[in-house]
Amino acid sequence: MQHRVRSRAVFLALAAATIVIGLASRRFRRALPAAVGLYAGDVLWATMMYLLAAAIWPRASIRRLAVGAAAFALAIEVGQLYHAPWIDAVRDTRLGGLVLGFGFLWSDLVCYAVGIALAVVIDRAVARLGLGGEIYSPRAHLGGGRR
Question: Can you tell me the distance from the alpha carbon of 119 to that of 51, in angstroms, rounded to the nearest whole number?
Fold first, then answer.
């Protein structure tokens, strides 16, 4: 059985593009349709988390990346229920607010699921287009392919 090793450069570039689009969706929220302006940032945040995970762990399966991104997103969202002064001070910074968010919303969980699904579609498209790296055999990689 063969598996794909993702190109870190490709997935870092995709994550960077997602960040730019996500920040633009926040900056120009009023110019977008209401639903897009309201939810695009959260959808793209989850997409970015998947793409960054794919760059960090290029041999991981799509399922592992999706589950990992979902678990991370859930942890961040549930963490928004915690409001100690120190964590709220972090959230009051621009980067802290973008990464950690401010308050728990059930709708964010739906956005994260949509964002991760979008990332899976992107991941598969990159593989189909042949942009995503190389193919390897896990047995050979583990030393079991040659005798």
Answer: 7
Q: Tens digits of per-residue pLDDT, 71-114?
A: 999 998 998 888 899 989 998 998 888 788 788 889 999 999 99
Whether the pTM exceeds 0.85: the reply is no
d(CA 138, CA 122): 24
Instruction: Name the phi and psi angles at 6, rounded to 5.
Output: -70, 150
Q: How far is residue 20's CA from residue 98's CA, in Å, rounded to a whole number? A: 13
The sign of the dihedral angle between the CA atoms of 99, 55, 111, 19 is positive
Produce one character per residue of 18-36: b if its CB has 16 or more CB atoms within 10 Å, e if not.
bbeebeebeeeeeeeeeee
Phi, psi of 136 (to 5 degrees): -140, 160
Phi, psi (degrees; rounded to nearest 5) at 137: -100, 120
